[in-house]
Every structure is written in structure tokens, then in C-alpha cells.
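This protein record is not my work; I was only asked to verify it. The record follows directly below this note.
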Amino acid sequence: MNERRFASIDIGSTYTKGALFALEADGFHLRARAETSTTVENLADGFGRVRGELAADGAPVYLSSSARGGLKIAALGLTADLTLSIARMAAYSAGGKVVRTYSYELASDEIADLEALRPDIILFTGGTDGGNSAVVLRNAERLAKSKTDAFILYAGNRKIRDRVLALLDGKPATAAENVMPEVGTINIEPAREVIRKIFLERIVDGKGLSRVVREIGRDPYPTPLAVYELVGKIGTTQPGWSDFGVIDMGGATTDFYSHTEAFTGGDTILLRGLHEPLLKRTVEGDLGLRVSSAALWDSERAYLTSRLRAAGRPLEEFDAYIRFVAAQPDYRPESAGEKAFDEMMAAACVRAAALRHAGTLSKVYTPQGGFYVQRGKDLRRLTRLVGTGGYLARTESAALLLEACAPGNAEADSQPLLPILPEAYADQGYLFPLLANLAGDFPDAAARTAVAGLRILKG
């Protein structure tokens, strides 16, 4: 009997990778693997090389891409605690990267900043249905007069939707349902779907991707969105995997995915802000081993400096290495010293991504006594943590992934809600993004194969 074969290719910011799978009763089986440096000027060239090496003639091809570093989204809302937080959720869950956030009424310097930033999308939110309209309409007027050519997605107060779109006439703009129709009610699915369509229109039509789409007859997925949906399928279909996290670390960004209940409550714990979703993604554009290495050195300088001093390594030597790999993003370390530098950078990415993804628990004192306030998501229930991306997929060290449990410089009365010594796994075949492409059509097989391919880490 002929095998049912499927090719899956992911065009990343540094490497284009692919696999040929055979679908059998127990899941997908790997038949071939290929990888090449991403051909940034014409993505079709690298895609063609990988497809050729897979010898995938006649097999359907599934594609994802994050070659431009992901969809750049600027989020605009009224308040950081409510609509702006939900706007971030919508952007992250759609596979985008939030590069800037703005709240309340846009000032002149913020308009100038937005114009210089040149995001792909402005996710414009604000007001419950029937709520605030004055600030939202003033922001619409200012966006209309601005020089930004970003696609504007309005997902705010439904009562003024037509007026907002009329003000934005002449700009590329559309509307989706309000991300927060009532206070505390989250409605991000409609905005997510529109963001995915904009990805197809704005990202595919360039750098050779449109040619690839014509060849395979299938639209690509944003890589982070594909992985997001695979994580959700694992959490809901695989026994024992209801509470787990995934850290996807690359050359440009580090993504953190968690599948666990955000708030479990208790008589002495109050939730402040939004009840975050079961499945959550955050992405950090300053945490990466190559393209973002200089930004990593800037944002995590204190942590990296302490590691360098503990190892007796000169800061100047590390600084020179950072500048070198930033200019040579496909460089792989050769000496023991360079490998040690990469491990320090990876540890910094893991630690910072976890701290930013996790919520906090703070002690509050009143005349009636003390109680706790939780903000954000509680990760303490995570029992498993998976490392993927080129570096974490190859690691042999559980200690590296368990940097996600490090408390950081917590205040005495406030603690980050980080995982508590979960089991650590590596995506040893670096198959998560490739299986994620197949998860839409074959959810059970993709989720089962992803879990079966993990390697438990020790030490």
C-alpha cells in the first residue's frame, strides 16, 4: 500500500527547514529532513532547495513563515490594564509581535514614533460597546492625518465603528468585533482571524512568497500561530499534558507558550485585572541569539554580566562576540569559549521570557490583615516545560530550561508566579513548527507525534 506522505516547510528568520512525513495509524513518521540558510532577498530560493532535498514530488506541501521576524503590530487602547492588555492577547495569539503599545489619547510625539516604527498592523481598540467614544474618535482623526501606511484594524467600541471607519477613509483599514464588548469580557477570535488574513495579504505578497503559494496551492501560516495552535491541541488531547509550557528560542525572538489555568483563586487571593486565557503566548523581540543579540545584551546586561564574571570571562570579549554574531546570523560557535557564550545568552533568553510571561503575587496589608493580589498568569501548575527552536532543541541540559524557574530580583512582598521545577524536555528533532503546519488538518496525529518525539532532559 502506498504511504500517505506530506511535506512541511518552515521559513524562519535564519534557517529554512523542512520534513517529509508519512501518516500512519499511530501518527506521523519522519522520512526525510532538510535545512538551508534562509534566502532573505528571495524566500522562494531557499524553499525550493529544501523541497528538492526532501524529494517530496507529489506530496502536498504545508508552509509556515516568520522570515520577516513575524508580523509587526502596534497596539492602541484606552487603558493598559484592560483594552490594551486584550489587544496584546489578540496580537500574540494571532502570531504577531507587538512592537509598541499606546494608551489613552495619542500625543504628537507618539504619532511621530508610530510613523517611524512602520508596523504592519495597528490594532486599534478602545471602549466597551456603548462606552468611551470621545478618545477613540480623536485617535481615529489623528491616525487619519498621520503618514502611517500600516493596515489599521479597528476592534473597539461597536457603537462608533462606522464613524471610525469613515474618519479612516483613505487609509488601509477594516473592522472586527470589539475585543472587549463588556468590562472583563474577552472576545479576541474575530480580530485574530483578520490579523491572519492581513498576514497573507501583506507578508505573502513579497520576497518570493507569492510564487511559492502559487506552486503549492496553499496559503502559509505565520509560524507562531501554527505553534500556538499545536500547543493548544497537545494540551487538550494528550493525557498528562494539560499543564505545560513551550519556549521557542530563535535568532530574532523568544516565544513563550503556556497551557494552564491562569488563576486558581483561594480565600486569600484576589485577581486584579484580566483573567488570562488557558492558552497564552508572549513573544520578546529583544531576546534572540543572533539577529537580536545586541538587544539581548542591552536588556539583560545585569544578568549576563554576573554570569560572565562568575566564569572569569572578560566583558570586552563577550561584547565583541555579540557584535560578530549580530552581523553573521547564521554563524554557529566553534570554540568552547564561543559555545559558553551562546549558553549564557540562551539562559538569559529563557529566564527573561519566563519572567515576562508570568504574573505576580503581591502581599497587601490592610487594617483587617494581609491578603494577596494576583496580576497576570500563574505558571506554578506547569508540570512540563519543552524547549524548541534550533538551540533549545539540541540542548542536553535541563538546567538551561529550568532558568525559567529563577525568581529574578523579586521584592520581599511580591513574587513572580514561575514554574516550580517542572520536568524538562527537548524537541529533539526540532519538529514542533513542522508538525504545527499539519495540525490544522491532522490535529490528533500532529499532537501525538510532537509529544512522542520529545527527549526528557537530566542534569
